Task: inverse folding
């Protein structure tokens, strides 16, 4: 693409769940980048092309890309899934990657699209099963409700999401070690990345409602717009402007 040509815009639907996000629509331009999240790229029809470091251009019905692998996804229609690498689901997906990638067959692609999550309440278990992978997120241990579960369920409604592990553990009247294990059992990832995804979701919801990047960052507890931009880039590999444009045209 020359500097005279206009980069394709991102346009589609975005949803953020616990430790994951999905995009369905038209991908815009993106440079070679890395991000610390697993990324699943599916072609709604025919194929998608991914340029991966050391492997050239790869074309397939779907491609699973491991975290921290330099890559570029060619613009066009696609369904994208981003999964926190440190979560149970992220570690399960990573097992399928060889040299940082896993190419999907047309059958796997069609099965995955058939159970594609489109809401924040969706369960990724059926998607893993469609890909031929075990559902790895364990059922919560112990009673159906306890202090840690109650605390976690109340976090999205809190104005501040920047507490430390020790502070949350004290609130639940547990040792930091016990609290850490319970959080992993209940949400499938450590506390810090879980809080980060909650803040990202809040920022994107604020931006979708019309807030500018600075206000969205403030609403979600980021230090400033630059901090929010770096976090979005780290997880999605595209500038926040592309994400916000997709949200506002969804």
Result:
């Amino acid at each position: 693409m020359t500097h005279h040509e206009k980069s394709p815009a991102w346009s589609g639907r975005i949803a953020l769940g616990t430790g994951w996000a999905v995009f369905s629509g038209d991908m815009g331009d993106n440079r070679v980048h890395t991000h610390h999240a697993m990324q699943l790229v599916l072609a709604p029809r025919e194929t998608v092309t991914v340029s991966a470091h050391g492997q050239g251009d790869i074309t397939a019905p779907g491609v699973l890309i491991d975290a921290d692998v330099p890559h570029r996804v060619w613009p066009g229609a696609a369904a994208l899934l981003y999964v926190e690498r440190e979560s149970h689901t992220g570690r399960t997906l990573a097992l399928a990657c060889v040299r940082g990638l896993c190419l999907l067959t047309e059958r796997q692609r069609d099965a995955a699209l058939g159970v594609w999550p489109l809401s924040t309440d969706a369960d990724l278990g059926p998607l893993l099963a469609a890909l031929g992978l075990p559902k790895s997120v364990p059922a919560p241990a112990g009673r159906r409700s306890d202090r840690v579960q109650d605390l976690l369920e109340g976090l999205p409604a809190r104005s501040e999401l920047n507490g430390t592990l020790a502070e949350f553990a004290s609130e639940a009247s547990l040792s930091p070690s016990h609290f850490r294990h319970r959080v992993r059992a209940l949400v499938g990832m450590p506390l810090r990345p879980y809080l980060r995804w909650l803040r990202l979701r809040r920022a994107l919801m604020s931006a979708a409602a019309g807030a500018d990047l600075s206000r969205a960052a403030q609403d979600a507890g980021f230090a400033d717009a630059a901090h929010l931009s770096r976090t979005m880039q780290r997880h999605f590999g595209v500038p926040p402007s592309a994400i916000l444009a997709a949200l506002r045209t969804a």
Remarks:
- The longest strand covers residues 76-84.
- DSSP finds ten helices and nine strands in the chain.
